[in-house]
Amino acid sequence: MESRGSDTEEEEQQTPLLHRGHKGNVQKAPACCSTRYLLALLSSYGFFVVYSLRVNLSVAMVDMLNATHQPHTNHSASVCAPHASPARPGRNHSASVYDWDVETQGWILGSFFYGYIFTQIPGGYLASRFGPKWLLGFGILGTVVFTLLTPLAADLGAGYLIAVRVLEGIGEGVTFPAMYSMWAAWAPPLERSRLLSISYIGAQLGTVVSLPLSGEICFYLDWTYVFYVFGAVGLLWFVLWALLAFDSPNSHPWISERERLYIVGSLKNELSPSGGHVPWRAIVTSRPLLAIVVAHFSYNWTFYTLLTLLPTYMSDVLGFSIQQNGMLSALPYLGCAVCAMLSGQLADYLREKCSYPTVTVRKTFTIIGMIGPGIFLVAAGYTGCNYTLAIAFLTISSSLGGVSASGFNINHLDIAPSYSGILLGITNSFATIPGMVGPLIARSLTANNTIEEWQMVFFIAGAINVFGATFYTLFGQGRVQPWALQAPHSKSVLNQS
């Protein structure tokens, strides 16, 4: 297959054809009451479950520990004056508590990622070979089942709990690659940003709801109900997913013929005819994929720094008690969800109505969604003890990160929709590493919890974000790569990466 010119030239030629009815292209099907938007809502619910089950342990852990063996948090020892929180009456709980030291707690909280990174690439491959619906469904169902078994595993010992968390990570590891494979068959090119942003908002809302709600459940019931409640929510999702989700428009029994023809017709020139063949060499040598890998790794460095260390910073430096200010800790993720949704609508509007090339939109949203968070994260380190300004900057930082949901985050579907699950598995494997090592490095730099030490942590995260955005801007692309369209017998496939 010959090279067909630059991203911009090709997209300017192709984009207007989708809705003009030329050469067999079909008329756009309405979004209201459509099966593709029902799938977006179902996947959003699924990611809500995934992130709820991922973060609820960090809140429940507070009540799982024997108070006499916990390090006492002395807010008077924080760098800034302690921020007063309303007193709450004591509650009598019957749930067990455990004498886990700090090292054991660290292993329990971090064990999820060791399972999570293990199934990223296999998840993408299995979804492309056998279909994404049941792989994603059973992946989340497995996580739900092990969540329900968490109280039992904790009673049996820390080793059993660690094993359960690893198994939860294995189950969740297939979810994003499988969902990308699903969207490869369901998302019309000019609706990808808004459909995937609806999916992604579930992940952010899972964090927003799980953090404060887990604290309330622990307070009014006990910590075991954190896992039972969210486990029940996950079981309900699986029932809905099993009944209402299907691998492709052609296999959906209730889809309208107009919508089916619209989706299939819009994707007919983007999907590979090669069946089960995977061009592994072309994939691993693809420069556009490397650009996504670098951007994904860099973005997650800042994301996991905030996710894991924001409570520590607010407690030890700003003097906030996160357990008593659950909504405050969830505020950055609420802002991220709102920005992700709005950016998805704007990105597709720019591509569909204004005919902006996909590559331009992806790079612009990546720059805003990575450099913006880096700037405000660094600025937060220089607010001193101004509580309001610090929280505002941290919230703006996380919120702007949501813009990248319509940048590099869905670029896998632009460059190789047929193999997007595999590509997401590759990039997410690298992007999981910051969650494993980033917080360890950050904590080693903040041994004394001084403002200057935290400024260095934020500066490093911001610099990594700027580097990732720059690399992606230089090497990212927005069109389907030739190797993603080639049949396996083609000799030129290896030379088009």
> How many strands, which pairing sense, and closed or not: the largest β-sheet?
none
What portion of residues is helical?
55-70%
Percent range for β-strand residues: under 5%
Regions with little confidence, pLDDT below 50 for 5+ residues = 1-6, 8-24, 71-76, 489-497
The whole-number mean of residue pLDDT values reads 84
* Count of separate DSSP helical elements: 19
Q: What gap, in angstroms, lies between the N and C termini?
A: 12 Å
What is the 3D form? Answer: globular
Whole-angstrom Rg:
23 Å
Order of helices and strands: HHHHHHHHHHHHHHHHHHH
Q: Please identify the structural class as seen in this structure.
A: mainly alpha
How are the secondary structure elements laid out?
Elements: H1 7-14, H2 35-64, H3 102-116, H4 120-130, H5 132-148, H6 150-156, H7 158-173, H8 175-186, H9 192-220, H10 224-244, H11 257-267, H12 280-284, H13 287-316, H14 326-352, H15 358-380, H16 387-401, H17 411-415, H18 420-445, H19 451-475
Search tags:
mainly alpha; globular; disordered N terminus; disordered C terminus; 497 residues
Q: Would you kindly provide a brief summary of this structure?
A:
By secondary structure, the chain is mainly α.
Structure overview:
The protein is mainly alpha-helical. 67% of the residues lie in helices and 0% in strands. It has 19 helices and no strands. The protein has helices at residues 7-14, 35-64, 102-116, 120-130, 132-148, 150-156, 158-173, 175-186, 192-220, 224-244, 257-267, 280-284, 287-316, 326-352, 358-380, 387-401, 411-415, 420-445, 451-475. The longest helix is centred in the first third of the chain and has 30 residues, at 35-64. Residues 1-6, 8-24, 71-76 and 489-497 have low confidence and may be disordered.
